[in-house]
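ok so I'm stuck.
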Amino acid sequence: MAVLKDLLQPRLRQHGLDLVSLLYFVLFELTAPIVEIVGLVGLCATLALGVLNVEFATLFFLAAYGYGLLLTTATFLIEEYAYHR
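replied:
not stuck anymore, here's the structure
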């Protein structure tokens, strides 16, 4: 929680962005593990109950992973093109 302590230091505040940074940190960074745990519990529950369509879940996972891989590759290529001429 050093980030929170640093954000609340008066000498580190810059142009009022500390509140924006704090809100972003709380809304996204602190809640992300909770959302992931809820998702994993839900996945296990649907698997145990036999409700999950495994074929669809597998295809969805592959599509999401492929999209993430595409974005990462595109970002890398753009960075190489822009800064390493």
